[in-house]
Queue: 4 jobs
Job 1
Amino acid sequence: MLPLMPILLYLLWVAPIFEDSEVTNSAVLEVINSESYKQAAAEAYALLALYNQGAVGLDALYGVRGVQQVRGVTVAFNLELVARDEPREGGGTKYKLAGYYRVSLSTNHFIVFLGVELALLGLVILLFLLGPPKSQRQFEELILQAHFCLDQPATSERADQSVERLLERFHRFAKDLEHGPRGRNGIQVKDEYDLQFLVNALLRMQFDNVKPEEPAPSLAAGGTRLDFLLPDHGLVVELKMTRASMTVRSLADELILDIARYRAHPDCHAILFFIYDACGLIKNPVALKKELSRVAGEIPVSLVISPNQ
């Protein structure tokens, strides 16, 4: 925009060059209304009036020529004597002064404009060359995308956080579904099948690629399936629902066995366990999290319990 500003200003400065070189031209009108033009033309018109009345001879008449600077243009004017088809007292014909005008660009102003424009172009090129390095610009673009781009792909860590926030509110979500509108039957989470059904719908709202019941590598002649796998993020989501016949120890053993199976899966880079503890079985979730982290080793393991006791 910096080099364009002088161009726009210059076009406004020389606007009369785009008009017809007639009396209606704004620059011509300004010249006609100037004191120097009026004074020169007044003398010529006075002698012309005396000649047409027969008071002076033809040799006393003269035209008027001149050049004036008006903003960014030059106006050349010429008042020439033109014979009129009308007899004059004392013989001959009467004359009149016909005005001719020519509007052209002012060379001095045009040179100044070119100098200013070239200087601005050089300044813009210099600023571009001396600007921040490419690595800095790329870093700034990444920061802008991270804050303002809605379509950016989520990273593995963002996927973990997103799923955790989603499942931490699952109990509230499930309770709302139990009461249908206008007396209709709601949805109740009675077992892990109902739990998988609802979590599958929630995950598909958040992620494009969700694989339910992905086969897991067998362990000690036994096979199992991952509840959900987010292959784009390397995240396994495993669901558990507590019941009256379950103990905390049996639940912990199931989770430890799942870790041993799932970390052998080639697309598993992190495991998130979700325990829907509607019956309030887990009294010490911190101890359970520490035991799972100790068993998992290098693979990240998260534990979400809802409702959180």
Job 2
Amino acid sequence: MAPAGMSRVPDAAPELNWLLAEHEKNVWTGMDPTGWQDSVWVLHAMYENPTLEGAGTHDDENKRRIAAGGEPTMIGDFNLDEATTDSGVPLGYSSTPGPDWRRLTWGEYLARSGHSLRDPHIYPPCHRWFPPDSWPLSIDPPPEGSLDQASFAALIHSIAAFEPNAYDTEIFAFMAMLPAGSTDDTDYHLWKGPLGAIPSLMVEGYRFTPTNWWPADRSWFVWTDYDLQGTKVSGPTGLIESVRSDDRLETTAWNKSSN
């Protein structure tokens, strides 16, 4: 059953031609076209639980789980837990945690080590902005490859406030191959429907928010890459200012040309 208000586009290639012409290789992780007046990055939300301070890291907790008889993560005969470190970073959509958790901004976290969002970064918002170790168990890090629940809802609201048709604005939503769990790069997961119906795609079985979404007139564009912890919003200055001024969103002006 299709999500309420959303329908899958049966012949998606014609609608994607304008993207595929330059970004065909990125159908696996996400497409990032250029040409809009302005852009901003929405940083995926992280949270902190002070009651868990001193409880170790996410990797420590995973090791304790296995020592207590938990099943290790196996890929065939390969024990992933023995060969890797559990960073604690969620891959895919994450819900807002319970009442013991408070929002921790990237700016707050970076300031603890003498850094800031204004520091030069070679890469867009991702794990490279943080120490390479496993995150403390007291912190729920920003998800990779997907907006989190709170940021997703806030971004939709911010865009709807800018659009004349608000939540009824007709949009396209594309799921890249890796987030869609597909191995066929010609089987495009493209959906069409009103802006306000995008969250219903999550009940379709996707574990990620849409990789790319845009209106029928292509006046703005959203990109959440499978490998990043931030979402890029491109469009007219008025829309970008609307996103920047939304106090429910943490944003940064990272730009490849200036880093």
Job 3
Amino acid sequence: MSDLDEVRLGDWLGATVTGFEGPFTVEKFAGGQSNPTYRIDAASGSYVLRRKPFGPILPSAHAVEREYQLIAALHPTGFPVARPYGLCEDAEVLGAPFYIMEMVEGRTLWDGSLPGMTAEQRTAHYEAIVDTLAALHSIDVEAVGLGDYGKPGNYFERQVARWSKQYRMSQTDDLPEMERLIEWLPRTVPEQTRTSIVHGDFRIDNMIFHPSEPRILAVLDWELSTLGDPLADFSYFLMSWVTQPEGRSGVKGLTGQHTGIPTIEDVVVRYCAATKRDGVPDLNWYFAYNLFRLAGIVQGIKKRIIDGNASSAQAAATVERMPGLVASAWHFAEEAGA
């Protein structure tokens, strides 16, 4: 049994999802601290349900409605996202808004070092990721009906203000380096030269690969997406290259011809060619910002644990990383001249 009212869910699916046929079973996916996600196996096929958490949540957080709007706009363009089937904004149905999309079967790659692959296979997988990010940043937002998906003005300015506010709303400790970042980041925001769809959490384990080919079938987890500076996504993706291998996305010290994992320079060259850029600015500011933002997200999880609303047993382990994230963010700030 899941924590969903399966009778009400079944009624909604039958009335809303084209071609849906029961009977069906529901199983909650492990992991993922933010929006609880479920697999539905029905007579008509397999689906995924994502919902907001139950209980009180921060304003603008967990916006499954926006996530659905985005995949519904991207799917017809051929960009790799799951097919959207329906959005329920009525919290009365299951206790929180949710949406349904197709279950994309394939591989999830949790470890950025890609163990068990040849050097050539690793290169091909990384090139597919870079090309997919470049494709996202090349989508004409007006043409796909997403011209109002984000606010005008400098994206990083807004994000620094937003994550400072989110941090303050869920703050539980006094961290001097976090205070310094909250003071320094807004003063040093780089100029924004382009606007695109920004995924907000673009990393190797947020995509589903073809079962046997180095091809991405679906990019997942769009809840932090907006319109903004594409360098936000690109620099966040590059964080893996300055993160020690930890069995997740980190590949620091593992790049080069012997492993097939492209160097940070290789990635920059490929991305710039695909997006017609002549280079990227100093990345240290962006790395400081990304770690600051991550610290803000982790602080939110910590507050939810204290309030009894965290949706995963992994949450506690995530929260233990908080001091290291903040220290690392300040290190990159110093590298950028703080």
Job 4
Amino acid sequence: MRQNVIALIFGGRSTEHAVSLMSARSLHQALCTLGHSVHCVGIDSSGAWHYQGSPCTFPDKVDTSAPLVTLQPGRRSFIFSRPESAPVEITVDMIFPALHGLYGEDGALQGLSAMCGIPCVGSGILGSAVAMDKDVTKRLVGAAGIAVAPWIASFEMPTWEHVVASLGGGALFVKPACSGSSIGVARVTCESEYREAYAIAQRLDQKVLVEKEIKGREIECGILECNGQVIASQPGEVLPSKDHVFYSYDAKYATQEDSTLLVPSAISPTLALHVQNLSLDIFRCLELKGLARIDFFLRDDDEVILNEVNTLPGFTNASMYPKMLEFSGYSLELIVDALVRTALTAPLET
């Protein structure tokens, strides 16, 4: 494969800024190993783009003193300038987003790349926007006949009485409609916990979901487009540590006592195939491209219920997506190579 000039975009304004840096580090190494020319663009917490150069060693953080980057619609390049020097324009073959959450995974970056005519790894504008919104995802997937957890989505906090009457008794989960890495997610069992959790979630997103707790195992499946085929990995399973009721942000990244990521999941071949087929159905239903991680709950009666969809899953040491694909025969370099090839050969959005 010829050497491509790739803009690796990381950081961002979302609450998943730190996770993005961890993912970008792994992707940078893989892209360099594959022989591509990688130009790093870091987005700071205010949303400003900074040119980080083409380093052999990935930076520890976004250098906010680095030159600001601009893109222009219709031009497959980005431009930056240093003090007392002429602007520099670098033509790129594609954008590889190592971004999670708002302004990176929600269709915003995908729209910008489309306006510039630059291929972009992963799903396009529509798929990214739809999958980022958990409420819209549930509506579409549910309409396709796939089971989802009962939920309420609202822009103003419903009363506790209304929530209980709609979703029934027992524990509930409160979460921002458009967020990832379990940030802002809380399990609640009473009105005071509900009010506190809703206020936190609403600081992260105007729309908030309240879901009925589904008791079951957490099963995940990775999807990868490779050589024109859509591949579903062997499913994996998340076993949260005893200190965590669910797979929270702390359970993923912040605690010393790691949760267990079991690959493959200890489920029957028949159930594994069912999870794979459901994942492929959801991938097509939401019009996704390139890659995705589909998360499910597996109940004791073997019913499989969709939890959520991630169109730019993590590539950190704690990330399930690369572990599942590796078990299925795809090293990180093979995954990245497939993503680059797919993005370069896909029709540009107009």
